[in-house]
Every structure is written in C-alpha cells, then in structure tokens.
Design goal:
The structure is a homotetramer.
Chain A (H helix, E strand, L loop, with lengths): L2 E2 L10 H10 L11 H13 L6 E5 L2 H12 L4 E6 L3 H4 L4 H4 L4 E4 L8 H10 L7 E8 L10 H13 L3 E5 L3 H5 L8 H6 L3 E5 L9 E5 L8 H7 L8 H11 L3 H22 L12 E2 L2 E3 H7 L3 E2 L1 E7 L2 E7 L6 H14 L1
Chain lengths: 342, 342, 342, 342
C-alpha cells in the first residue's frame, strides 16, 4: 500500500474538531456565521492580532476566499498583481477573471514578490487604456514552500501603501509559514503588514474552512453581501466556527503546522546529506527535491507525489507535501528507502 | 429558554454522519470529489434514479449550487424564469445576476410555476432586443412549503422541452417534498422530469452539502471546470462524499425528512382544529399559519420564528420550520401552549 | 411607397452636422474625446447646466450608456430599481445584468417612478440576503412618451438622497421631453435633480451619440477607465464631439425636438377630435393611439408603425414616432387618410 | 505647426464617405443593421471572401469588437491565448477579463504567434484546475507593424484546428496588412484561415466601424443577441453600413491602405539609407525607428509621435504611424528634416 505525499488535504481533520462537532451537535445556533462558535473564533483571532475592529468572515475554501476577496476590493477597471506561480493565476480555472478582473503576472523564481518586481507593472499602466493595478496578491507560504520574513513583508507593505495598492495575503498554508524554523513573524505582524489576508484551515487540520481577516477599514463595508452573492456564506456557519474555535484554542493550528513542517524538514535534511538539491529553499511542509528519473520510478512504487518540473533531461523536481497527519514512521521509512536506492 | 422554529439549519447533523467522519478520518483519499465516498454516493444516486450516465457533483451550499448551475447552462444572452418568491430571486443577493444573467419573474400565489405562467414571458421575448429565456427555475418544496405533484411536473417538463427550455429544480428541501403525505413522485421521477436538479443535504440532516444531478447530456460537459471557477470545488471533497454516502444509505435522508414533515403536520392539524388558517397549503416542513398579533407576542416569549407577511391589520402569517432534529415533545408543548392562549 | 413611423432613428442626421463633419474632416485631432470639438461640446453643456465641474463623456449609443453608467456606479451587491417598462429592463437583452447587477422592477402604468412605488422595494431589502438597491433608473421622456414635471422629479430626487440612492436619468429622448408643451424643466433642472444622466443624440438629430453627464462628485472618478473597458471609448471621439458641438450651438437639438413634438401633437389633436383615445398621455414625439383592427389594417398599407399592445378583442394601441425629419406634409396626409377611414 | 504621426485616427474619414452619408441622409432605413447599405456591404464582403454563409456584423470600435467576439465564443472556463503585446492584453483596460475570461500571454519579439509559442500553454492546462485555452488571438498587422504571410497563417490555423482552438484575427489594420508589399494573402485567405476576424474601418479611412466576419458555423448562432447585450448594436446601423459600402466599392479601403503603407515605406527607406535601425521589420503603416535622444528632441519640435521603448541609455524606438490622409509633402519634409540633423 502506497503513502500519499501529493498534498496536505488527503486526510480528514484533527480528532478534537470532530469531538467539538459532536459536543455541540444538537445545540440550536443562528445561521450565517452569527452562531456562538463563529463569534468566539472571531474574538480569539481579534485578540491574537490585537485588533478588536478586524472584520472576520469564515468561508469554505481557498479559491472561494480568493475570488471573494479580490472581487470585493477591486473596482471593475482594477487589476491584481501576482507571481506567475500564484495560485490565483495558475490553479483556479480563471476564478478571479470570471469576476471581471485581470491578473497581471510577474516572473519570480522563488514564488515571492518584492517592490522591484512590481515597479515595471506600475510603470506600464499610465492611463485609461490600461487596467489600473490596485491589489498585490502574495501567498505565505508560497506555492514553492518559501516564506516571507518580516523585513521583506514590511518592505512590500510600505511599497504598497506608497503606491495605493492593497496587499492581500493568501494564507492557505499560513500556519505552516508562521511555524517554520526560519520564520520571524507572528500572525499579528501579518495583520499589521497586509490589508486583508486569510488564515487557512483546510490544509492545516480542519475539514474545511478559511478565515478571511480584514484590517483595512476601507475594505470592510458590506463584506457579507459579497460573501453571500458569491455563494460563500454557509447556512450552517457553525461548521466553520466550531473548527476555527477548536484550531485556535491552545494554538492547535500552529502545533499541527509545526508537526507538518518537522516531517518535511526531516526529509530535507536526509536528502541534503545524501547530496540531493532542491528547486526552492523551503522549511515549510512543501519541499521540491530534484531526482533523476530512475530514482523517481522506484519511489513511485510505494509513494504518491507530484512530478513538478523538468530540470534537465532525465532530472525532475518532485513535490512532497507533509501534513499534520503524516506519521513520523512513514517519513523514516521514506528516508530509509531513499538511502537504499541512492 | 426558547425553541427556534426559524429554520431547518439550526442544529448540526445526524449523528451517524459524525460517526462516519470519525471512522474515515485518517484514511488518505483523493481530493476534489475523486475520493471513494463521493464516488460511492454518486453510484447510489445513479442507482436510485436508474441513470448510470447522470453527472453528479457535490457542492457546499444552495446559493452556490444555484449560481453554479445557472451560469453553467446559460449563454450570456439567456435568462432564467422564476417565481417572484424563488430563492434565486428573493434571497441570494443577486448571485445569479452577478454571473451575468437576468432572472425573469412571474407572480405565483403558491410559489409554483406552470406553463400558463411562463407563456407570457416567452411571448414578449421575440428577438435580439430581449434576453432569450432558456431555463426555468423551480423549487420543490417551494419557499412556501408547497410541492409539485407528478402531473404538474410532467406538464411543466413537457412544456419546457417543447419550448427549448431547460428545467432546473432547486431541491434544497427535496427530501422533505418527496416525503410529504401528498407527494406522488420518486427521486427517479424528479430526474426524468427535469434536466438538472439538486438534492439538498444542508437542510435535511447534513452539516453542509448539496448534490447536483445532471441528466441532460448537453449540460454535462466540463461541469467541474465551472465548479472550480465558481469556488465550489472543495479540496476535501470527502467531507461532502461521506455525508451523502451516509444520508443515502438505507434512505436515511428520507427518513429524516419524514420526521420533520410529521412534526410540522402535527402542528398544522392542531392549528386547523383550533380554527386557524394558513397562507399556503403545506404538508412539508415549512408551514405558514396566520395569527393575530397578540398570539404572536405571547408565542415569541418561548419560541423563535419568522414573521413572514402582513395579512390584515393586526394579522400576520408566520413561518414555522421543523427539522430532522425537532423533538416531538417541543412540538407537543407548542401545541399545548397554543391551545391555552387561543 | 410607405412612410415609416416606427421610430425616430430611420433617417441620418441634421444636415448641419454633416457640414460640420466635412469642414473639420482633415484637421488632425487627438483621440478618445480629447479633441477640440468634444472639449467644446463639454464646455457648452457645463455652461447650460451651470456646473463647471460636471464630468461629461460621449458614447455611441443608449444601451452602451446605460450599461456603462450602471456598472460604474454600482458595487457588485447593489441593484438598480426600474419601471417594468424601463428600456434597461425590457429592451436591452440583459445588458445590465451582463455586467453583474440585478434590476428590481416596479409596475407603473405610465412608465414613471415615484417614491411610493420604490418604498416597497426598499422595505424588502433589509440585510445581506438580498441585493441592496442603490440606484433608481428613470427615463424622460419615458418609453410611453410621458414626461416628469419639476415637482415630480424634485420629490423623487429628495427621496433618493434621503435613502442613499443614486438617481440616474436615461435621456435618450430628453430633448423631446424638455421641449414638450407640458414640460416645466430646463436641462439645468435635470442636472440638479439627478446624480447622473445622459442627453441623447441618436434619437434627436445626430448620427450617433449620447452625452453622459455626471454631477455627483462621488461618481466621477475614473469614469474613462470604465468607458474604455466596456468598449465605449471611440478612437475618433471627434465624431461624437463634432455632433454634440453642432447640436448644442444655438440650441439646435431642442429646435429639432420641438419639431418632432409638434408633428406628434398635430396627430394627437386630430385623433382626439376624431374621438380616438390613447394608451398614455403624451405630448412628446411618441404617441400611442388606440385603434380598432380594421383601421390598423388600412393604415398599414401606407404607413409603418409598431402594434404595441392588445387593449381588447379587436382593439390595439399602436406606437407612432415622429422625428426631427418627419415632413409636415406626411403628417397632414396621415391625418387626412385617417379622417377618410374613421 | 506640428504634424501628428501618433496614430492613424487623427483625421476624419475619406471624403467619399461623407458624400455617401449626405446622399443617403433623408432616406428612411431600418435600424440595427437591417438597412439597405449594411446588407449591401455584407454582400460585398461575402463575395470577396467567396462565402455566402459568412455571418457579418458591424460595430463601432475595435475594443468593442474584441470583447464582443471573445465573450461570444468562449464558455466561462475558457481562455484566449495572445501575445503579450496583443491589443486585448496591453491596451484595452481589461475589457476581455471584464467579460469573465482569462487572457494567457506569450512573449513574442515581433508581436506574432506561432504553434511553438502556443504549445507550452496547452501543456500546462491539463485539467479542471486550470482555464481551458479555447481561442487564439492574433492581430494582422500586429501592434509592431509586422504581418503574417500565408504559410505562417496556414500553419497556425491548422494547429488551432488540430487542438480545438478558435483562431480569431483582430484586423484593426487588416487593410494595411493586405496591402503591404511583403503580403501574399487575400481577404479570402484570411477568411479561410481563421474562424472569425474583423476588417477594421476606423484606422483605414472610416469615421468609425469594424466589420466582424464569422466563417465558422458553430460561432454564428445568436451573435446579434451578444452584440446587443454588450451595447454594440447601433440603432442607426446605417452609419456603419454606408461607410463599409463605400470603403468596399472599388476596393477603396485597400487603396487608402496602400497610400498609408507607401508613406511609411518612404520614411523607412530614407531612414535605412541614413543608417538607422528599427525595433521590428514593418512594411505596413506603423514603423518603429530607433533614434538617439538628441534627434528625438529636435524632431519633437515639429512632429508628434510616441516614444515606444527604451533600447539603451539615450537610445529609443519611436512609433511613427501614417494614414490614408498623410500628405506626401509632410513625409518628404520629415525626411529632409532628418537628413539635416543626422
């Protein structure tokens, strides 16, 4: 039987969430996020980011969060800037464009954006013949497993403010980023250095759910109208509220992310000692080692993963993703197997 | 402590669903609806409707289902016809229009559509200066608790086919409709007498989830692309699959609907014997009794419900909704309370 | 050979416009409305409405003007209120909905809106489950030839301001309205009693062209971006500028409207003296006399017009439209013909 | 007084068009393209491309044509492939995205597309997580003045057919392309080697107007509905019909293009003999010579043009555009001026 390293949503959710669902199951709660648990989860997040006025709304999935946020904050003639590798550009079937907005893309070898990469786009958009860039989309961790440090995010945020750009952070794997060994930011820093971001649950131990957190006052108005019109307002909002309440108590979400990062790091270190190199430097739960094809073929008999990119003839970067549920013994066996065939 | 008759999504889900989530929790499953449970649920539905080629996709909520279906089946210049009371027209914040399509509305006292109500709309749309009606939206049960019988749906479907209209049925409460005492249809009939419909889970015992069932071949192509671009494709599709698998086994969903209908019916009969009348005739889980204001004020001290419509000075129709979770003793107490004050 | 009373765009344009096109033809002018003539036309309009800060943009046609204005001023979850007979609702193939916005309609026997008709719509839109009405669409003259007087428009505008609604006036036939015998408004009044409106050229003597006039400061920002993205910004903006410059000099547009109104009025008076009645009371260039079918059949041999509405068995309202180009002798002959057969 | 080489829409139109407008001015014609002249123009185009079944519709401008065509032929999850320099990508304020569709871009040094440039895009779009490329957008002549030869277009069209892609050609300057010395195609070839294209009038001697020509049967259905809903159906369609009727008679449009090409070519040859080089090789009416900054500063005193691109410190490519109206004596003076300062 094979083990699946393809993604971090192959399992269900942390067992304590199921317990919380059971314990609250027959309570009558208001719909649409006006339930006790959602309100509690909101308060905890507001406390963590030390912003009592943050507007917080829970939705079911990441593509939904992205299209909802961007269609809410952009006027029809405004665009969003993203790395080419950005999830909204590469992996969401045109969901943002379907709401009417152009994504302007930038090449980035490590999946991250910085002011120097954005400046050329601002320069070419001078008048009403071009879309007006108004938002910058980043993900942390990125689609390549890399993360922003505080200095980079500060630079980017200051640049955005100076240029009248909203900074939006896709945090599908934010817990993993903030738990990475090389990370030097808290979730409070994230809140202060962006205009709007989401803290992802689906890929960090929840069944489903992402918490959209808006700190910029100008973006808060009537968000729930937008949420409803995009089909992103669940009747049983409690299902999301209970999960985030549970994930945020005792910092469970960050503990789960810690585990997933450690599992990936263990593989990384082993591969490094075996002399393998990587497509991008990652200490989060996505890693991209480079293997010759014959190694890949042997691994495929026992493990599932994505062949990410051709590097040279007969040489490929693969993607391995660990999660809160990845057993350490599977990681150890994977390392052993690799040692044998390397 | 008050009891809430406001809607049928105040509680969590049937306990067996939580058990199923627990039992499957650590299994690794493919994402995006390609998991074992979703495929199993699909097969059960295909069996029930005796159509092995039905295209079936699970989504999180009803508004999402409606906007996804209608934006998928309509061309930019095509409209959908709905009763004024239709959920897409009255209660979804313009979600369908946000995908670019006009809803053409018809007055209907009981929330149902029939060919004679649709003909005037077809007549006024003669050429390229008007939208082209291409779909008919109905709900069963309707927003007023009423249901279609087989003869009515057959008439409507034949009319649609003759006039090149797709018939789409919003089945948020389809289980309730098909379990109603006056119902004479099976889910197989529904499948044969519509082009596309959904079987609702959220309001019938699931945490979240609606199963969109497409029987018209011309509407099946690339549905999953549309699902993804509307943000309606969950990474952990298993969460939906497990629920529908559970709800469909041993016809659990219909048994739950049966209970909710019986609870409403018990109230209806008691009210009738007390001499009260109703806004619409319903034997499903939504009923609309008409009360003088003083009765309403007394009831409000112990029960929550929606004041639906002003009928006359000092006289209002209220909406009472029961669910799979409504305890019979609450219903009995409600009836007793009413007897005392009537 | 028949004469065509079907509409007011059967002919080309007033000859002086063609002369102006010839005289300016080889001048080099900037594109996109930045030419001398457009700027001149803008200044004249600003002078007429005594508002130097009015934002004025010229577009090619009426449906384009409507979809551009409404998509510019509404947020995704906001709707526009219109009479059922409103052009945007009945005759534009869902152009407004195609930009993502719901039109909420009201029945009105004379095609006009007033606060009492709007209040029920505002009442039913209480929270994020419904679209939020944000604009009111009216036309003057209406699709039934009727016009607003100053008292009515003042009431409506005050009501809109009190309820945070933008008032948008479709002026496809505004020149005709302002030239009607019963009119008591100037174009300055129109500017002061709306937030945004357009002065139509196509139906009042131009080849093509409508002037969109924005007086509400909050609606002015980046309008040209919206204009471009809807395909409504002509490279040779001069073509529109020259026409409006010509139409506005010496009030030509109002003189032309005057003629078209007079021709309709002459017919109206003759029909009244012959005992015919009308669907709506109009002293503009659209009239809706009611004839028995046999009269209509005889008229059809020599005249083209639209059969508008069935009034009773064998009795129909027809629409007759006159224009700046309608020869008085045709009108006289039409009246004579009617006298003979009545 | 300066001369303006900034674009090919600084003047009005060929005088014969104004004559035709005068001569037809008082004729009563049907609206919406159902007039005699539009029908005549359609027949001439059908004759020229030897396709009696071609569907032909006239619209006012190029951005409008592009957004109308692409929104008509694509399903919501489908994208269009374009060169980065493509007008739809760089110069239309997100008009295509505003209709809901992603543009997938390719770098091309000469503004042209070929199968090898498209293949990588097709490869990365494998399933429902990515948009599905369905159309290829090219312009001829391109935004860099280059043109396709018959072999290139044949290759591209065959590739498109093999890969289920519609080939759409933006012909804003098609007359110029087909009149270029190096061209080896007829308009019939264009019709046979694309699925849909437009023949541009605005930049080739008309006041306004582009003729959209659809040869692929699957794209013809209900095009006029789409035209109306995008605000692209003029009431006085005659204005477009008369112009195309005039431009097509005796091949006037190609004669005008011939003149504009010759004027550009005369400048090109003079500059080559003076030793200047060019950004792209063009024998159409747009040329991109490279000048040192001091030359540009001198030229700017007497001529207007666009500084297109920085080539090196102190070295820039400028864009010079000639038109049907460019006087040869201005061209001669420009060449003389350059000789003096070079």
């Amino acid at each position: 039987m094979t083990y699946n390293f393809t993604n971090d949503y192959s399992e269900g959710c942390h067992p304590s969430i199921l317990n919380a669902l059971i314990n609250s199951n027959l309570e009558q709660q208001n719909g649409y996020g006006e339930d006790f648990y959602t309100q509690k989860a909101i308060t905890i997040i507001q406390d963590k980011i030390e912003d009592k006025n943050a507007d917080i709304n829970l939705v079911a999935g990441g593509t939904q969060a992205n299209l909802l946020v961007l269609s809410s904050i952009l006027r029809p003639y405004e665009s969003v800037i993203s790395a080419e590798t950005g999830h909204i550009n590469s992996h969401e079937t045109g969901a943002v464009e379907a709401t009417g907005h152009k994504i302007e893309t930038v090449y980035s070898s490590n999946g991250k954006l910085s002011p120097d990469k954005i400046i050329p786009i601002l320069k070419r958009s001078s008048n009403y013949h071009s879309v007006r860039p108004r938002a910058v989309y980043i993900s942390n961790s990125t689609e390549l497993g890399t993360i922003y440090n505080k200095e980079e995010l500060t630079d980017l945020y200051k640049f955005c403010k100076k240029n009248d750009l909203f900074l939006y952070l896709d945090g599908a794997r934010l817990a993993s980023a903030l738990s990475a060994p090389s990370n030097n930011m808290s979730i409070k820093d994230i809140a202060e250095l962006t205009d709007i971001f989401y803290l992802g649950g689906t890929k960090c131990g929840a069944l489903i759910g992402e918490a959209i957190i808006t700190t910029n006052n100008s973006l808060k108005e009537n968000f729930k109208y937008n949420q409803k019109l995009r089909g992103a307002l669940l009747a049983k909002g409690r299902v999301l509220g209970i999960q985030f309440f549970q994930l945020l108590q005792n910092n469970l979400i960050f503990k789960l992310a810690d585990h997933s990062n450690l599992m990936a790091l263990k593989i990384t270190k082993a591969l490094e000692s075996l002399g393998y190199s990587f497509l991008a430097q990652s200490d989060t739960n996505q890693i991209f080692p480079i293997f010759p094809n014959n190694i890949i073929q042997i691994l495929k008999k026992e493990y599932e993963f994505t062949i990410w990119k051709s590097i040279a003839p007969d040489l490929f970067a693969i993607r391995l993703v660990t999660s809160w549920a990845t057993p350490e013994k599977v990681v150890d066996k994977f390392i052993d197997d690799l040692k044998k065939i390397s």
